[in-house]
């Protein structure tokens, strides 16, 4: 199962956020502490998206282990941002290993990641995929469950559905179509982070001015809260709300 995280708050260096903590995302790529969904390492790709200012995010993603790419280490050392979404990937068996299959998926200000698996792929998704514009299906980033989940969320965002609702509706629809799926979704526009805990672990740590939402805590310091399964987090740098998915 992949690992992902989002950060909002005062600018931090990507190295401080993704490389330095004792159980950093980098370390989670070879020694995650919680792989309850199967798999042992997250070596099939990684990606980082960050907001350099008030505009659209910059994204860097590769289909190789995070530890084997010198460029991300160099970039991280010289880049700071006040909003970041990053992920390391363990491809589900049978799914392509390509740059385009690594999160974050992106459009405009949006960055998106999925930690989990859609059961019965691809057959279970035929009815929901059939409701998307053909163009969206022809231009999927990759033929993976995560890329399709992004297309389903994005379709709702484009229609003006609020982010929390777009995520909750997508989780609910996919859970009905593909029971047993693990659907931890993570979405940000650089100001708000929305994340579902649906079949996999999710934690958060908030201070008065910052928040980290992550698949697993990246250190043993105090302040981490586990998000209960079936719940949705909505966070800004200064406030966090956790609700049952059914109440969103
Ligand atoms: N199933 C997705 C993929 O293969 C997500 C992977 C994961 O969470 N391990 O890309």
From TrEMBL:
Residues 2-248 form the Glutamine amidotransferase type-2 domain. Pfam families: GATase_4. SUPFAM superfamilies: N-terminal nucleophile aminohydrolases (Ntn hydrolases). Keywords: Glutamine amidotransferase, Hydrolase, Transferase. It catalyses: gamma-L-glutamyl-hercynylcysteine S-oxide + H2O = S-(hercyn-2-yl)-L-cysteine S-oxide + L-glutamate. One of its GO terms (biological process) is ergothioneine biosynthetic process. Its EC number is 3.5.1.118. NCBIfam families: ergothioneine biosynthesis protein EgtC. PANTHER family: GAMMA-GLUTAMYL-HERCYNYLCYSTEINE SULFOXIDE HYDROLASE, GLUTAMINE AMIDOTRANSFERASE DUG3-RELATED. Catalyzes the hydrolysis of the gamma-glutamyl amide bond of hercynyl-gamma-L-glutamyl-L-cysteine sulfoxide to produce hercynylcysteine sulfoxide, a step in the biosynthesis pathway of ergothioneine. HAMAP family: EgtC. This is Gamma-glutamyl-hercynylcysteine sulfoxide hydrolase. It comes from Micromonospora nigra.
